[in-house]
Write a structure and sequence with these properties.
By secondary structure, this protein is of the alpha/beta class. Helix 4 crosses helix 13 (341-350) and helix 8 packs parallel to helix 9 (237-247). Helices cover 44% and strands 12% of the residues. A 7-stranded mixed beta sheet has the order 1-7-6-5-4-2-3, sandwiched between helices. Strands 8-9-11-10 form a 4-stranded antiparallel beta sheet, with helices on one face. The radius of gyration is 23 Å and the shape is globular. It folds into 3 domains: 35-70, no CATH class; 94-350, 3-Layer(aba) Sandwich (Aspartate Aminotransferase, domain 2), CATH 3.40.640.10; 352-447, Aspartate Aminotransferase, domain 1 (Alpha-Beta Complex). The structure holds pyridoxal-5'-phosphate (PLP).
């Protein structure tokens, strides 16, 4: 047996070291860590890929001592930049099982058990949005892949319906939509029909109707956000659903970040109308407490996705003759990791009530933080939060001040924060998803802006 594939004493020692590392990583608080320049890593790590190998002890040492400390711990409770992560312990541990299992979760023929469990999790997600029982979907790598795959399905369905293509295909969206939606348009070589947003940055049914009435040529879909990333705002989903229904347009909802809040009674009414979408996405690696990478992509009618995405190859014909809905057929991919399994295992372990409580606690922290900002004279809230993102300004600060701020705060290991822009102004942004983030973390961050 080749030594790389033998389970010998050395492998046993490696297994112990890896499990010990992983255990320590999730058992004890980890530092936030920092950003390091490539030259520094080059110098400290040295040459790691060599004909004779450097051995696992040395590779693991380099990872632990040099590379891991130069990699931000996005699950740290004071990591509140971009959209952070907060995977449950069960989900992270089961991810090790997924890695060890060599499951190809492309089709039922070789991934039945794993796909069954993923489908359980997908059914639960679909149910949160009020989708019918025939809905179905697949876990893809992230929101970008989910949005792209949904829009490819939408365009294919529109082409079938109209029996041809217009001069240019377009989909309608506001400029507050996630950048991955615009990237999908580029990949698909379609145009984005920009709909003006309201004062909170929302796509509304009225705004959409006005834009489509003025020029709706070639439009095959509308993309709404349920938790737009920059400000965490939920679009007027019910109004958009009405406008799409009137015009026979595909209604896609990007709930990659915000979809977790479907579980939270305190904000659930904001999502009214999502049940009428043709497709929607939620990223469990954001606020549903799963490890990277996973996006649940759900279709009202999965047959339309199969028509758009199924690949044809002679070596796949037997597999495709089975009467199953195969994950490979529902998005732009073939081979896939069973990346929905950590979410499934964690949901099964803790139960959905624990998820609801954790998400409500994050929403409560967001409201407490808004109060805290209002109490501080040097800070101004830009708008009331819908979900768990806060935008606020530090009066008198320039762009450079915000830039210096995030670096200073990370150097001091107080927090990982990033500024953003709102209506052309540089402002501060906090995004919460971690139930372990406390008001003390928040006060420490706000204290750095005094
Ligand atoms: C609303 C929204 N959509 C899509 C994406 C893209 O998701 P991913 O980074 O998983 O590709 C993000 C990522 O932050 C997002 O917040």
């Amino acid at each position: 047996m080749h030594r790389m594939h033998a389970y010998d004493d050395d492998t046993e020692e490696l297994a112990r070291a890896i499990v010990a590392y992983a255990r320590n990583r999730i058992a004890s608080p980890q530092p936030l860590d920092r950003v390091a320049p490539a030259e520094e890593l080059e110098r400290r790590a040295g040459r790691t890929i060599a004909p004779e190998g450097i051995g696992w002890e040395e590779a693991l040492r380099i990872w632990s001592e040099v590379l891991a400390p130069a990699t931000i711990s996005t699950d740290h409770p004071a990591s509140v930049a971009f959209v952070p992560a907060a995977p449950t312990k069960a989900s992270v541990l089961f991810d090790l099982v997924v890695g060890a299992s060599s499951t190809i979760a492309a089709g039922w023929i070789d991934g039945a058990g794993a796909i069954w469990a993923e489908n359980e999790a997908l059914r639960w997600v679909a149910g949160l949005a009020g989708f019918p029982g025939e809905a179905g979907g697949v876990f893809v790598s992230g929101g970008s892949a989910g949005n792209l795959s949904a829009l490819v399905t939408a365009r294919h369905a529109a082409a079938e319906r109209r029996g041809g293509r217009p001069a240019r295909w377009r989909f309608a969206a506001c400029d507050t939509v996630h950048s991955s939606v615009v990237a999908a348009a580029r990949v698909m070589d379609v145009d984005v029909l920009e709909v003006p947003h309201d004062e909170r940055g929302r796509l509304t049914g009225d705004g959409l109707r006005r834009t489509l009435d003025a020029d709706g040529e070639g439009v095959f879909a509308v993309v709404a956000s349920a938790g737009a990333t920059n400000a965490g705002i939920v679009d007027d989903l019910a109004g958009v659903a009405d406008a799409c229904a009137d015009r026979g347009l595909w209604f896609h909802v990007d709930a990659a970040y915000g979809g977790a809040a479907l579980l939270a009674p305190s904000v659930r009414p904001l999502f009214d109308g999502v049940e009428r979408a043709d497709s929607f996405i939620v990223d469990p690696h954001k606020w549903l407490f799963a490890p990277y990478d996973a996006c649940a992509l759900i279709y009202r009618d999965p047959a339309l996705a199969v028509a758009a995405h199924r690949q044809h190859a002679s070596y796949l014909e037997t597999a495709q003759a089975q009467a199953t809905l195969d994950p490979a057929d529902l998005a732009y991919h073939l081979t896939r990791r069973a990346r929905g399994l950590p979410l499934w295992f964690s949901l099964a372990t803790y139960g959905t009530d624990a998820y609801r409580e954790a998400i409500e606690s994050v929403l409560a922290l967001t409201r407490a933080t808004a109060d805290e900002i209002r109490r501080r004279p040097e800070l101004e809230l830009i708008m009331e939060p819908d979900l768990s993102v806060l935008l606020f300004r530090r009066t008198g600060w320039t762009s450079d001040d915000y830039e210096g701020w995030w670096r200073r705060v990370l150097d001091a290991q107080v927090a990982f924060v990033q500024p953003t822009s709102w209506e052309g102004e540089r402002v501060a942004r906090l995004c919460f998803v971690n139930p372990n983030t406390t008001i003390e973390h928040v006060r420490a961050i706000l204290g750095t802006m005094a």
